[in-house]
Amino acid sequence: MTTVPASPVRQALAPEAAPERYVPATFATTRWGFLPCEADAPVLTVSPGETVTFDTVSHEGILEDQGRDPVAFFGAHGIAAADVLGDAVTIAAHGTHEPGAGPHVVTGPVAITGAEPGDLLEVRIDRLEPRAFYGVISSRHGRGLLPGRFPVAGPNTSVFCHVEGLEGGVSAARATLPLRPSSPARPVRFPIAPFLGVIGVATPGGIRLNSVPPGRHGGNIDINMLVEGTTLYLPVQADGAGLYVGDPHFAQGNGEIALTALEAPLRATLTVDVIPHGKAVERYGRLTGPFARTPEFLVPTGMNADLDLAVAECGQNAVTLLTALFGMDPELAYAYLSAATDFEISQVVDQVKGAHARIRLADFTEVHQ
């Protein structure tokens, strides 16, 4: 169970308090609105099997349409200046955010020794620690699922949420959201389940991709199953892999229909490993994108600007995984998936839409793996 420190806010760690492999969110270690590419020098190099701790900063509260002043923005909601992350303040004041760039602040890249294109990067999510006790849900610029209706007034609606009960750990915490703007004393309370919306690897060449659309490289995949205890597998695109993280969430419903979910900063501790190309193909088949494994589920993905095609890609990857991992006949795998597996919408708001499936591992306990 994740615990919280005496102070409810996790500012950047001092060097003497930081783990050996720690990546804070600074000018040198972050990019705002773009993803790292092969030409970007790593901010840290680690060996396979090593653990890295990343600080992440949420874009909510620092964007231009919110005043680009998180102390003022969160202060208007009763948050003291001392409880606003110093790295968020610095990035908002001095960071470069180009017109047309994505909103996300991305920490990395981290090189993994020996990783080559065609390999799989294995990223185990060990720990996700809230860095604040509040977050924001925004609908902006008509880019959600219902653009003709929301936001109601103006280009941006930002809903502030307190998180209560973090002193008892994440499982005890509840985010609060007012039933109506005029009745904050009657809140809706919902559980949190922190995860990183952006986990990816550097793309080939020297052009940085916008941070919004996900792809084969991972990036803004927004799968809410990527919580503590889950392992994500990413196809390596460039030497060293170039792992990066960002877009931290406290909670998200499948679909993320308003454009953002409950956006809030996290400290992420990840263990990385490399599966060489030949072994990766033998073990998992020839997949066309990232996939994950939780203690309960295999989670193949599919991504496309057309949601129908995203679901179809997810289905194909699901069949490929079952055939490779368990030796299942493809036609029988197709039938099994239809009868026993939920296919879900990851998000519909990131230009490239995402789907993922939940294949129960318990159904295969009698199968030799």
Structure description:
The protein is α+β, with helices and mostly antiparallel strands and 369 residues long. The protein has 2 domains: 18-115 and 124-273, Sandwich (Jelly Rolls); 285-364, Endonuclease I-creI. Helix content is 15%, strand content 32%. The protein is built from 5 helices and 20 strands. It has helices spanning 70-75, 86-94, 277-284, 307-326, 330-340; strands at 22-23, 30-32, 44-46, 51-55, 105-112, 120-130, 134-140, 156-164, 174-178, 187-191, 195-200, 218-220, 231-235, 243-251, 262-263, 266-275, 291-293, 297-304, 342-347, 353-360. The strands form 3 sheets. Strands 1-4-16-6-13-17-18-20-19 form a 9-stranded mixed beta sheet. Strands 2, 3, 5, 11, 12, 14 and 15 form a 7-stranded mixed beta sheet that branches. α3 (277-284) packs across α4 and α4 crosses α5 (330-340). The protein is globular.
List keywords for this structure.
369 residues, alpha+beta, Jelly Rolls, Endonuclease I-creI, 9-stranded mixed beta sheet, 7-stranded mixed beta sheet, 5 helices, 20 strands, globular, disordered N terminus, FmdA_AmdA
Write a compact overview of the structure shown.
With 369 residues, the protein is of the alpha+beta class.
Q: What is the strand arrangement across the widest sheet? A: 1-4-16-6-13-17-18-20-19
SS elements, strand count:
20
User: Quaternary arrangement of the chains shown?
Assistant: single chain
CATH domain class name of the largest domain: Mainly Beta
Note the main sheet: 9 strands, mixed
Number of domain modules: 2
Radius of gyration: 20 Å
CATH-level-4 superfamily name of the largest domain: Acetamidase/Formamidase-like domains
Name the beta content range: 25-35%
| Total of helices | 5
Structural class: alpha+beta
Low-confidence stretches: 1-6
Provide the helix percentage.
Answer: 10-25%
Large-scale geometry = globular
CATH architecture of the largest domain: Sandwich
CATH topology of the largest domain: Jelly Rolls
